[in-house]
Amino acid sequence: MDGDSSLKTGSEVEPAKEKQWQLEKRIKEQHMKRKSRYLPFSIQPMPYERQRLAEPMTDEDRFLRKQWLKDQILSHKEPRHVEGLKPKNIFKRIYGYPADLMYKAFIPVVGEIPAAVGRIIIPRILLTFGVLYYWYYCIKYSPNDWTRGKGWYLYSTRPKAYTIDEYPAEKDHDDFFDKGFKRRTCLKDGKTSFVSE
Predict the structure, then answer these.
(1) For residue 24, what pLDDT band results from cuts at 50, 70 and 90?
(2) Are 92 and 116 found together in one domain?
(3) Is the peptide bond before 159 cis (omega within 30 degrees of 0)?
(4) How far apart, in whole angstroms, are the C-alpha atoms of residue 118 and residue 144?
(5) Is residue 161 a contact partner of residue 167, using CB atoms and an 8 Å limit?
(6) Looking at the 3D structure of the chain, how many domains does it have?
(7) What one-character-per-residue DSSP string does 130-159 give?
(8) Partners of residue 152 on adjacent β-strands
(9) Residue 26: φ, ψ to 5°
(10) pLDDT for 128-167, tens place per residue?
(11) Residue ranges making up the domain that contains 41
(12) Three-state DSSP class for residue 30
């Protein structure tokens, strides 16, 4: 009995590491079984022409073959698209509502597949153009200059200085945070209510 005490129980034994080929075999088997205990198999009776011609078919074989071929014909209601199987939150429904209306209107005109492709591509193109137009409008008509306190501020990099004489360039004291004030075309006379001649 003393020799048995040195043996480890099942809970104490460390599991052996799985080898690469074992892991690949297990993953391949799981993929083939498709979340089932058993491998998929075909229920088609006599799938190959050679099987049907090698020995004569009985009436029962003909009936099974005819029934199987009849079952392959889909009804006009198939495939069924059940909305409840793919629920969308309220934001996706609001965002996709115009695209859904366009999709339903295009189905009778161009067909289901081109309408589905258009439902994906056209809203994205329109959204991209809308964002680019809004960006262009803000930059052109609402810049951050001396006349307003908000807007889009655009700036460029400093000019390159190739010699020591060009850098550091002397700047005027009022260049800092100018925001286009020196380039203004109005209010240049400097007369205000406090300055009179």
Answers:
(1) very high
(2) yes
(3) no
(4) 39
(5) yes
(6) 2
(7) HHHHHHHHHHHHSB--TT-S-SB----PPP
(8) 143
(9) -65, -40
(10) 999 999 999 988 888 888 888 788 877 777 777 777 766 6
(11) 19-71
(12) helix
d(CA 18, CA 63): 49
Which of the 8 DSSP states describes residue 169? P
Residue type, 71: D
Q: Which two tokens stand for residue 53?
A: 């011609």
The answer to whether residue 49 sits within a structural domain is yes
**Placement of tokens 């889909």 in the chain:** 74
Contacts of 107 (CB under 8 A, 6+ apart): 115
62 & 89 share domain: no
- How many residues can be counted in the chain? 197
Whether 24 contacts 48, CB under 8 Å? no
Alpha helices in the chain (DSSP H): 2-5, 20-33, 49-54, 59-71, 90-110, 112-141
Structure tokens at 124: 């994205």
CA-to-CA separations, 31 to 5, 18, 21, in angstroms, rounded: 43, 18, 15
Tokens 């495939």 sit on residue: 79
